[in-house]
Specification:
Elements: H1 5-26, H2 32-43, H3 48-53, H4 61-93
Helix pairs in contact: 1-4, 2-4
Length: about 100
């Protein structure tokens, strides 16, 4: 079964840009409140990636699977970035639980 990569290539490129933007924003985080806002913005309820998941239904099955893979991968990368940023904040500012 083949799928039309052209149908999802723009969405995959957009995920790459979303992740890059998240990295750029994470580098400016200096407190746990801003970190939580960043998390909510990207992977929280109503977040950017959450909204992208809602668009999967417009694709055919194979395209949906492929794009879903990239969505999950981007979400996992953002989640890991947030966890690493949380640890860096804890170490830098000697915070207890962030």
């Amino acid at each position: 079964m083949c799928f039309n990569f052209n149908a999802i290539k723009d969405d995959i490129l957009e995920l790459s840009i979303i992740y890059r933007n998240c990295i750029d924003e994470a580098e400016t985080i200096t407190n746990k409140t801003d970190l939580e806002i960043l998390r909510s913005k990207y992977i929280g309820i109503g977040g950017i990636l959450t909204e992208k998941y809602k668009t999967l239904g417009k694709y055919q099955t194979n395209e949906r699977k492929e794009l879903g893979y990239y969505l999950n991968r981007t979400k996992n990368h953002i989640d890991a970035l947030i966890k690493c940023t949380r640890i860096e904040l804890m170490n830098k500012y000697q915070l207890k639980v962030v």
